[in-house]
Amino acid sequence: xxxxxxxxxxxxxxxxxxxxxxxxxxxxxxxxxxxxxxxxxxxxxxxxxxxxxxxxxxxxxxxxxxxxxxxxxxxxxxxxxxxxxxxxxxxxxxxxxxxxxxxxxxxxxxxxxxxxxxxxxxxxxxxxxxxxxxxxxxxxxxxxxxxxxxxxxxxxxxxxxxxxxxxxxxxxxxxxx
Length: 177
Known about the structure:
This protein has 177 residues and is an all-alpha fold. The chain contains six helices and no strands. The protein has helices at 2-7, 11-21, 26-33, 37-51, 56-66, 143-176. Helix 2 packs across helix 5 (56-66) and helix 3 packs across helix 4 (37-51). The longest helix has 34 residues, at 143-176.
């Protein structure tokens, strides 16, 4: 049934729905196709009516499924602490209970033996901010650095409060004279 509905879509409607599936906004699609944003909205609404759905995202997913494409796009910015499938840190055959099977198991290790590092190692002696700067993450600080920042922040707040109180005292003296 959905294949029949998708077959009735025009090529312009298909183009717009493909771009919706790529998470493009109406203005971006309009710029890409060289039409007005109203024209994009009209094509999307006509496609939604033809497919019998209420959301533009559902229409785009239907088209992607019928065309045989993966309806869900990969992450644009994947998290840094998730290993990709192509990473060289792969596992060999299982060596469960100390038994190794065949020559391919040479150098294999169990998962709990593998060393993982979710966060890159810190260079000791390097001054680090508790903010994500230059690709760093706020969780890159060790315990001592965190305590240093907490203590430094407390001192800064106490100093600022002292300056504030001194300013208020000076203003009150100025008002009395």
